[in-house]
Each structure stands twice: as structure tokens, then as C-alpha cells.
């Protein structure tokens, strides 16, 4: 049995298999052909943080695959009152067929997976957001970007870490520009650089958004204040001064470059209103693709239940 906790746990060809499945299922869905790949299966969805896209896409996705989703907010289940993660895992995984979790520390989802009888999917932790990056890759392909040169401008956070894993595995160019003091986790950088030796990924790290964006064909960013960092908001907004993706910065990218944002977006902080609206087609295609990419992941995990 395999869990989907980080992209680093998969080979390039496994990730591409999931993308191919997602593309096939997207085409079927667009034709209103709802193939019951996961008939009568239940997806438990545990949320310890807020969500719009992750909740709606997983719940709709499992339904369209012939199953049902259970929304389990930690405010409402005993986990939120102190029931241990490992007990929650041992109970829920005897009743459902797959579990998606959005939580804080990566170690919490790893603990859940250790005790789970069914595949576990990371719906965002403080360290990673892997389902989002599968979506972003699918979206880049749909936008005709087959040789990505990606500039990530902003916080060295869960999104950046997953970009590093994706680039590291698939072997494309990723340039990261963060403010000083907001760099990526050094262990995750080391892991990505190790992967790059095999895949040929070109990874670079710096503090100048202009250097990162010059000549890129994909520009991306994320909020400066992730969930759980609300108390640091005031300081962060000051420290990220100069890191907005605005028209001046976008002008340095390749002609026809796309702009991606996992959303929610905070206008005139990490991205200007003008850049956001000019690239709304790509951004909302990316949001829609959550539905399709995650179906590919769920079906793949179901097909690999027998694996070591
Ligand atoms: N991008 C993303 O995961 O959005 P939500 O927080 O709304 O789920
Ligand atoms: N980095 C953001 C992503 C939200 C989808 C957060 O963790 O809040």
C-alpha cells in the first residue's frame, strides 16, 4: 500500500502515471462519462486548517468516481479534543477506504499513515502541498509548457518545498527568490538537490525576484502569511516588501509566460490585481484541475493497494 505524503516518495514515472490518469479522467468527466473507478468507496477528509478548494475538489471528486466523501473538521471530531492521531487513524481507517488529511506538522500525517490500514493523502501540511503541485504540473502541460522554467517569488513555504520536489523529480528548472530569513527548509533543499543529480533539474536560490523571473515561462507565488502564521502577519508584510509579482516584474519573463497561484490570493500583497486578472484564465484552470489531478492520485493509490 502506498501513501501520498510527499512527491519525494514517488518515481518520475509514477508521478507521470498519475497525471495521465488525471488527464484521461478529466476528458471522461468533460464528456459527462462518470466511470465508477472507486465505486462504494469512502474518503475520510480530516481538516485541521481551513479550506475551500481542497474540500470541494476532494468531496466532488470522490463522488464523481462512484464513492462518497466524509468531511471531518477537527473542531467536530474527538481529534480536536485531544484524541491521539494514532488512535484516530486506527479507528477511521477501519471504516473508510482512503483518508485525506490537512494538518500542521508533516510528522502528524506520517504518524497517521503509520497506523492507517488505508492509503493516506496529504491535503497540505506546514511542509508540503503535493496535491497542489500535481495540479500545477497538469495545468502547465495544458497551457503548452513542456519545458518549464519556473520562477517562484515569495515565502520559502510548503508550496515552495513542493515545487522543489516536483522540479527535483521531473527534472526542470526552478528558480526560487525569497526574502532573507524566509528561505526554504535546508533539509528539503538538500533532498531536492540530491534528486536533481538524477533528474537533471536545475535549481537555484536567491533573494532577487528580478533574477528569478528573467526569461522564465512560468511565474508563481503564494501568500506571505500561511495558515498558522497569523501572529507574524505584521512583520511578514514588512519583510516581504519588494516581493510582489506586478506587471513590471512579469515583463521580465518570457513573452507568453503564464502565472500560477494556488489560491487564496491576497491582492496587492504577493500579486498585483492587474497581474492576477490578466492571468485569471490560467489561475482558475489551475483551481479546476485540483478536481481532476486528485482523481488521478486517488485512482492510482487504489490500484496500488497491494504494493509494499
Ligand atoms: N490551494 C488550496 O489548497 O486551497 P484551499 O486552502 O482553499 O484548499
Ligand atoms: N502556503 C499556504 C497555502 C494555502 C493553500 C498555507 O499553508 O496557508
What does this structure look like?
Strand 5 (149-153), helix 6 (158-170) and strand 6 (173-177) form a beta-alpha-beta unit. Helix 5 (130-142) packs across helix 6 and helix 6 packs parallel to helix 7. By secondary structure, this protein is an alpha/beta fold. It contains 12 helices and 9 strands. Helices cover 44% and strands 14% of the residues. It has helices at residues 12-30, 53-64, 85-92, 106-115, 130-142, 158-170, 186-199, 209-213, 233-239, 247-250, 273-278, 280-303; strands spanning 42-47, 68-73, 98-102, 120-122, 149-153, 173-177, 202-206, 218-221, 258-261. It has 2 domains: 7-129 and 290-303, Aspartate/ornithine carbamoyltransferase (Rossmann fold); 131-287, 3-Layer(aba) Sandwich (Rossmann fold), CATH 3.40.50. It has a 5-stranded parallel sheet. Strands 2-1-3-4 form a 4-stranded parallel sheet, sandwiched between helices. Bound molecules: phosphoric acid mono(formamide)ester (CP) and norvaline. Norvaline binds next to helix 6.
